[in-house]
């Protein structure tokens, strides 16, 4: 529960910056054609229009790599030199993907900035030729058009996109710690205006087709088709191609102008941008905002601003040069390695490595309509799962149902759903007070209060009514699953599913297996989680599992630091400036002081001295005064409805003063305080891997970043050790061990890594 | 205030465009037959079933179908419906007190006459002891009226039922916005001046923006024309094919009108205006003229235009349906039997207008017939693209297997038996009244040309569809 509550607050901050690379999910759809002579790109000529089709072999997505690049040059040269061809259409044969971006492996294989700059310059050169093509080229976009894909599309003379949910245009490079390196920083501002371009490149957000049309990013929309003479996806691509061909012809015949009529607002904006003073103000403002949000921890956004500025103020030659150089520099930074690692990890954690379950889960039942239960219901009903939400009282149930409705309705307000879809999804939810219909349930997830005897009670009740194949999942953040399963008649069907609050915002799901949990049960749980849109780590059972267990020693250190006289505000700023999305003291408030205390006691019993540090008495005194954190209005801070700037709770001073510990000056510098927190976290994480709680470092990193708000720029605890250095980490721990004892003793696996410098968690 | 209102109305879409969007809603169909077809010897017996009453259509009439905004524009829907009912009384001379029940279909309801069947029947001189109700099922509303009548008779509840339908698109209920309505309702409940003033102070200019009747599918928010354009694209139907089909419909309708085949039309003396004697939407044009029109829905490259869509129409229809023995006892010579019928529904987004494709094989199977047994096809033409898509879908094994769960295609109706007296594209399509026109066209064609079976089919908003077998009454 600690972790889950913690994350509530984290999410607010992390969401915008976290990796949410959209659109990489494509159907696998490869067509073999006898006509294929190249592997990635082919073209045919229809009348006087060349139709260039991109279809990378053995992949669900097209990525811009070396091979595709050179084939593209070949094809374009043929198109340009042919007298028969007057225009061209560029289209992907893969449904759901135009080009998903550059090939990351190509970038990570480079060892010097010069190599990366070279790649960027080659792409720039090619795209410039496309831009200057006298034969109009129409980009026909169906599915994800991201990164390099978007840069290619905006080099073309015209863009037509399908108005499909899968069609997303964006520049997510910033999320990988790099920048659009193939002319994007120069072309995008010209195409959509400087403010919109900054927004796209600095947030990395994906833009849906209809909005792209309004922004001027695409020129025409094509509606996706239903079934007709062919399956819908196939026919839609064909139709897109047909429409694109007519526009290509129109452009070649000069019947259609590639120039777009700009609206009044757009004209005014572009006029304003022509005034140097206004431009300077905009740069300044954007830069300030970025500095404030990134705390200087992420170099990419600032470089993006810089490159755009160079292009506008000093001309495009300087802009392109700056773009390629900064691209090279960024690709070599630790931050980009960390972020790319997270991206890869996220992709891995979106797969079900346990295979397909024997029986698909269609009927889900959730016990407890509290914040968690209703949250789980919300992410289930909108994926088409028939969901029963059960609680003991009508009032509690009603509150939960309202939460689900509100969650869906908020999406309607944001136009992500229609009101009709909302109603249809909401109909998937059945609220009830009894166990009616549980005999049809394929999975039951309990989200009742964290109390072992209560969990035992519902487990018994549920097992009396559910069918044999039904999985029983417990949503708990700290109670060991084997203890819950101890009274089960069928322990192989019992598993832990640890969601993070708020469930609809937090991407992580921690699945906990006991030695008795069957593989099929795990496969079912992972499949349900994936359906719910979660990033999933699967860990072994144990006190605190993985996430809560890593957080607990850090929290213990937080208390000690406070007792040593560092104020909550100072501590918050130290942690956020290290990259945590939420300050450490605020985190305790968000988690709930009582919950933190409960977990600390439990885990303290299980792990003993290693989890010691601050005195639990601090929390106990806070609880006795009713300072439970945000939920009670007071914790370390005072929370009031509608008041944005929170003030310190002055009563805390007396509590902390009464429990003051002497601070040790040689380990109490600002930097030391930061590292005391992080190294305890990291050490515990590595110990989890050593003990086999974690199966892979990747899952450890994903869990820490997506569940606990570990600084994304560090890439997670394991990436941190790799990039910061195992030896340096151990040195830090030893230093603190000297001051505080065994809580900081580095674990064996960490020492192994320190003693052999070639050993890395990520090879 | 006045200027405000004018401003709002200026912002309404231009009439023609608006009208066109409306025209997307229903669809129906009718049948045809040829002398050659009738000569074939029928292996099939009559579709009479043991222990089920035979149900017959004695006759049916309709007002001339007019482009909305023309001669009927000052009428109310019940006026039109009354004209059809009076016409039926006159044509059949049915004694008023024999009629057990009256059912009319309508789509856009006039709020003052929400049970338009009752208001029209009272005015038409039917007995005030004859109950009447109104049904709505988008473009197959009058089909629903007729099949409801069939069920009432088959179950022995009634012997004589009048079914029909009406639509008056010249006037539609345009409402105040919800906010304005709420304020007005609250005002009427306010007791003190203070309460009233405080309510009025909440008034905002945007309260005055009116609410038009939905032109889009409620579930998908897509207009029917838009869906038709996508459907045509999904079935790879070109603009030219669509224009050609529309031209065919208009040419055949003109021919039928000139030859006096549209005998179900009864003249209507419109109060204050001349007597209307014939449909006014039949306008055979040329492919060149039609090619000049811009796409109406998917711009700028779509294929559905004003010329290849059905237009907004005013009109009403009515048929007299009886149990066979009752009809014979009353001395009638019925025109046709109403046999098996079928309602279907499917995805309202991507298959909105494919109702006939789904309904046709089912109703044929139910009746034990094949496509070859049908002499007169009468399909509702909502859009050229929609008709052609349905024809292609019915002729596709792939579609039948993957979307309809059938082993094989049902086959496409031969065009020489298909809507040969024109269709909704040319005759017009008053949503609530088209179904009866289709049935009477099928019955009259069978009578005229000597075939045995007619097949009526239609699509409707909401992704629904209908088909019915009409069997000629032996001479």
From TrEMBL, chain A:
The active site is at 510 (for hydroxyacyl-coenzyme a dehydrogenase activity). The record marks 151, 173 as: Important for long-chain enoyl-CoA hydratase activity. This is Trifunctional enzyme subunit alpha, mitochondrial. The record marks 498 as: Important for hydroxyacyl-coenzyme A dehydrogenase activity. One of its GO terms (molecular function) is long-chain (3S)-3-hydroxyacyl-CoA dehydrogenase (NAD+) activity. In the central section; belongs to the 3-hydroxyacyl-CoA dehydrogenase family. Belongs to the enoyl-CoA hydratase/isomerase family. Gene3D superfamilies: 1.10.1040.50, 2-enoyl-CoA Hydratase, Chain A, domain 1, NAD(P)-binding Rossmann-like Domain. Keywords: Acetylation, Fatty acid metabolism, Lipid metabolism, Lyase, Membrane, Methylation, Mitochondrion, Mitochondrion inner membrane, Multifunctional enzyme, NAD, Oxidoreductase, Phosphoprotein, Transferase, Transit peptide. It catalyses: (3S)-3-hydroxydodecanoyl-CoA = (2E)-dodecenoyl-CoA + H2O; (3S)-hydroxydecanoyl-CoA + NAD(+) = 3-oxodecanoyl-CoA + NADH + H(+); (3S)-hydroxyhexadecanoyl-CoA = (2E)-hexadecenoyl-CoA + H2O; (3S)-hydroxyoctanoyl-CoA = (2E)-octenoyl-CoA + H2O. Pathway: Lipid metabolism; fatty acid beta-oxidation. InterPro entries: 3-OHacyl-CoA_DH_CS, 3-OHacyl-CoA_DH_NAD-bd, 3HC_DH_C, 6-PGluconate_DH-like_C_sf, ClpP/crotonase-like_dom_sf, Enoyl-CoA_hyd/isom_CS, Enoyl-CoA_hydra/iso, Fa_ox_alpha_mit. The keyword Lipid metabolism applies. Residues 364-541 form the 3-hydroxyacyl-CoA dehydrogenase NAD binding domain. Its EC number is 1.1.1.211, 4.2.1.17. Its main location: mitochondrion. Heterotetramer of 2 alpha/HADHA and 2 beta/HADHB subunits; forms the mitochondrial trifunctional enzyme. Also purified as higher order heterooligomers including a 4 alpha/HADHA and 4 beta/HADHB heterooligomer which physiological significance remains unclear. The mitochondrial trifunctional enzyme interacts with MTLN. The keyword Lipid metabolism applies. It is found in: Mitochondrion inner membrane. Residues 544-639 form the 3-hydroxyacyl-CoA dehydrogenase C-terminal domain.
Automatic annotation (TrEMBL), chain B:
It catalyses: dodecanoyl-CoA + acetyl-CoA = 3-oxotetradecanoyl-CoA + CoA; octanoyl-CoA + acetyl-CoA = 3-oxodecanoyl-CoA + CoA; tetradecanoyl-CoA + acetyl-CoA = 3-oxohexadecanoyl-CoA + CoA; decanoyl-CoA + acetyl-CoA = 3-oxododecanoyl-CoA + CoA. Mitochondrial trifunctional enzyme catalyzes the last three of the four reactions of the mitochondrial beta-oxidation pathway. The mitochondrial beta-oxidation pathway is the major energy-producing process in tissues and is performed through four consecutive reactions breaking down fatty acids into acetyl-CoA. Among the enzymes involved in this pathway, the trifunctional enzyme exhibits specificity for long-chain fatty acids. Transmembrane segments: none annotated. It comes from Balaenoptera musculus (Blue whale). CDD domains: thiolase (cd00751). PANTHER family: ACETYL-COA C-ACYLTRANSFERASE, TRIFUNCTIONAL ENZYME SUBUNIT BETA, MITOCHONDRIAL. Pfam families: Thiolase_C, Thiolase_N. Pathway: Lipid metabolism; fatty acid beta-oxidation. GO terms for cellular component: endoplasmic reticulum; mitochondrial fatty acid beta-oxidation multienzyme complex; mitochondrial inner membrane; mitochondrial nucleoid; mitochondrial outer membrane; nucleoplasm. Its EC number is 2.3.1.155, 2.3.1.16. This is Trifunctional enzyme subunit beta, mitochondrial. InterPro entries: Thiolase (IPR002155), Thiolase-like (IPR016039), Thiolase_acyl_enz_int_AS (IPR020615), Thiolase_AS (IPR020610), Thiolase_C (IPR020617), Thiolase_CS (IPR020613), Thiolase_N (IPR020616). Keywords: Acetylation, Acyltransferase, Endoplasmic reticulum, Fatty acid metabolism, Lipid metabolism, Membrane, Mitochondrion, Mitochondrion inner membrane, Mitochondrion outer membrane, Transferase, Transit peptide.
């Amino acid at each position: 529960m600690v972790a889950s509550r913690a994350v509530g607050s984290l999410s607010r901050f992390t969401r915008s910056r976290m990796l949410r690379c959209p659109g990489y999910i494509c159907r696998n759809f490869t067509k073999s054609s006898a006509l294929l002579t190249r592997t990635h790109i082919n073209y045919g000529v229809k009348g006087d229009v060349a139709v260039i089709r991109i279809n990378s072999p053995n992949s669900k997505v097209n990525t811009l790599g070396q091979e595709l690049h050179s084939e593209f040059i070949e094809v374009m040269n043929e198109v340009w030199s042919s007298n028969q061809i007057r225009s061209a259409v560029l289209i992907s044969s893969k449904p759901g993907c135009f080009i998903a971006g550059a090939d990351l492996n190509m970038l990570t294989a480079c060892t010097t900035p010069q190599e990366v700059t070279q790649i960027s310059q080659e792409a720039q050169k090619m795209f410039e030729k496309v831009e200057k093509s006298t034969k109009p080229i129409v980009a026909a976009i169906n599915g994800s058009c991201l990164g390099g894909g978007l840069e290619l599309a905006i080099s073309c003379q015209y863009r037509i996109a399908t108005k499909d949910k899968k069609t997303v245009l964006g520049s997510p490079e910033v999320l990988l710690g790099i920048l659009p390196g193939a002319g994007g920083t120069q072309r995008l501002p010209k195409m959509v205006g400087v403010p919109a371009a900054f927004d796209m490149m600095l947030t990395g957000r994906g833009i849906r087709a209809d909005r792209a049309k309004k922004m001027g990013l695409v020129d025409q929309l094509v509606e996706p088709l239903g079934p007709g003479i062919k399956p819908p996806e196939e026919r839609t691509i064909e139709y897109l191609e047909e429409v694109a061909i007519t526009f290509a012809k129109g452009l070649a015949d000069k019947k259609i102008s590639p120039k777009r009529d700009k609206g009044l607002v757009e004209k005014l904006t572009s006029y304003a941008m022509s005034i140097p003073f206004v431009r300077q103000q905009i740069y300044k403002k954007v830069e300030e905002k970025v500095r404030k949000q990134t705390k200087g921890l992420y170099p990419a956004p600032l470089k993006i601003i810089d490159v755009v500025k160079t292009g506008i103020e000093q001309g495009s030659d300087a802009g392109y040069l700056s773009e390629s150089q900064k691209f090279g520099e960024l690709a070599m930074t630790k931050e980009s390695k960390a972020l790319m690692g997270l991206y890869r990890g996220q992709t891995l954690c979106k797969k079900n490595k346990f295979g397909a379950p024997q029986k698909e889960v269609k009927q889900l039942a959730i016990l407890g309509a509290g914040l968690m239960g209703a949250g789980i219901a919300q992410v289930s009903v909108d994926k088409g799962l028939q969901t029963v939400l059960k609680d003991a009282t009508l009032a509690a149930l009603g509150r939960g149902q309202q939460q689900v409705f509100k969650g869906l309705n908020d999406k309607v307000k944001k136009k992500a759903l229609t009101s009709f879809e909302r109603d249809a999804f909401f109909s998937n939810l059945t609220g009830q007070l009894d166990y009616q219909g549980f005999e049809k349930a394929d999975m039951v997830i309990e989200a009742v209060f964290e109390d072992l005897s209560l969990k035992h009670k519902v487990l018994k009740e549920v097992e009396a009514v559910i069918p044999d194949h039904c999985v029983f999942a417990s949503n708990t953040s700290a109670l060991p699953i084997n203890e819950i399963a101890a009274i089960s008649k069928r322990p192989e069907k019992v598993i832990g599913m640890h969601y993070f609050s708020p469930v609809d915002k937090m991407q992580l799901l921690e699945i906990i297996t006991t030695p008795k949990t069957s593989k099929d049960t795990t496969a079912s749980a992972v499949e349900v989680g994936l359906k719910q849109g979660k990033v999933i780590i699967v860990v072994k059972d144990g006190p605190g599992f993985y996430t809560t267990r890593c957080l607990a020693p850090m929290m213990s250190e937080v208390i000690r630091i406070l007792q040593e006289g560092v104020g909550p505000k100072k501590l918050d700023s130290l942690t956020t400036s290290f990259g945590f999305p939420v300050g450490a003291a605020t985190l305790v408030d968000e988690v709930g002081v009582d919950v933190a205390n409960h977990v600390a006691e439990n885990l303290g019993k299980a792990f003993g001295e290693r989890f010691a540090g601050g005195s639990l008495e601090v929390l106990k005194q806070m609880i006795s005064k009713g300072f439970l954190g945000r939920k009670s209005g007071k914790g370390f801070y005072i929370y009031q409805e509608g008041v944005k700037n929170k003030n310190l709770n002055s009563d805390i001073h007396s509590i902390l003063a009464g429990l003051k510990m002497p601070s040790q000056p040689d380990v109490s510098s600002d930097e030391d305080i930061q590292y005391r927190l992080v190294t305890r976290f990291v050490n515990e994480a590595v110990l989890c891997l050593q003990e086999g709680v974690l199966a892979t470092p990747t899952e450890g990193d994903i869990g820490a970043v997506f569940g606990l708000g570990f600084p994304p720029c560090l890439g997670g605890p394991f990436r941190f050790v790799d990039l910061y250095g195992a030896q340096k980490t151990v040195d830090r721990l030893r230093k603190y061990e000297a001051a505080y004892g065994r809580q900081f003793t580095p674990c064996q696996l960490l020492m192994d890594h320190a003693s052999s410098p070639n050993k890395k968690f990520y090879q | 205030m006045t200027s405000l209102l004018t401003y709002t109305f200026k912002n309404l879409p231009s009439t023609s465009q608006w009208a066109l969007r409306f025209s997307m809603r229903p669809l129906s169909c009718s049948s045809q037959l040829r002398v050659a077809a009738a000569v074939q010897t029928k292996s099939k017996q009559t579709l009479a079933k043991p222990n089920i009453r035979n149900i017959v259509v004695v006759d049916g009439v309709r007002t001339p179908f007019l482009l909305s905004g023309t001669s009927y524009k000052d009428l109310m829907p019940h006026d039109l419906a009354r004209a059809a009912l009076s016409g039926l009384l006159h044509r059949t001379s049915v004694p008023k007190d024999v009629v057990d029940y009256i059912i009319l279909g309508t789509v856009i309801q006039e709020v003052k006459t929400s049970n338009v069947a009752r208001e029209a029947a009272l005015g038409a001189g039917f007995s005030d002891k004859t109950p009447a109700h109104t049904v709505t099922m988008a473009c197959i509303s009058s089909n629903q009226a007729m099949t409801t009548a069939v069920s009432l008779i088959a179950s022995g509840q009634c012997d004589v039922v009048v079914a029909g339908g009406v639509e008056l698109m010249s006037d539609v209920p345009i409402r105040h916005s919800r906010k304005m309505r709420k304020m007005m309702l609250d005002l009427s409940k306010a007791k003190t001046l203070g309460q009233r003033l405080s309510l009025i102070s909440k008034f905002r200019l945007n309260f005055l923006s009116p609410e038009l009747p939905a032109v889009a599918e409620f579930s998908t928010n897509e207009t029917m024309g838009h869906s038709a354009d996508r459907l045509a694209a999904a079935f790879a139907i070109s603009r030219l094919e669509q224009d050609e089909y529309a031209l065919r419909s208009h040419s055949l309708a003109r021919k039928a009108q000139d030859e006096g085949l549209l005998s179900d039309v009864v003249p209507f003396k419109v109060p204050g205006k001349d007597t209307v004697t014939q449909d006014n939407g039949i306008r055979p044009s040329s492919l060149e003229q039609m090619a000049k029109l811009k796409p109406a829905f998917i711009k700028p490259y779509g294929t559905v235009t004003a010329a290849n869509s059905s237009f907004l129409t005013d009109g009403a229809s009515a048929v007299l349906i009886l149990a066979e023995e009752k009809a014979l006892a009353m001395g009638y010579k019925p025109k046709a039997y109403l046999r098996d019928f079928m309602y279907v529904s499917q995805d309202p987004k991507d298959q909105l207008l494919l109702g006939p494709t789904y309904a046709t094989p089912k109703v044929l199977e139910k009746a034990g017939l094949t496509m070859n047994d049908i002499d007169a096809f009468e399909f509702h033409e909502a859009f050229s693209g929609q008709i052609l898509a349905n024809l292609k879908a019915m002729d596709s094994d792939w579609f039948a297997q993957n979307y309809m769960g059938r082993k094989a295609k049902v086959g496409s109706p031969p065009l020489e038996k298909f809507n040969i007296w024109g269709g909704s594209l040319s005759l017009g399509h008053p949503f609530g009244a088209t179904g009866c026109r289709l049935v009477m066209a099928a019955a009259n064609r069978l009578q005229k040309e000597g075939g045995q079976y007619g097949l009526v089919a239609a699509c409707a908003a909401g992704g629904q569809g209908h088909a019915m077998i009409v069997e000629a009454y032996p001479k």
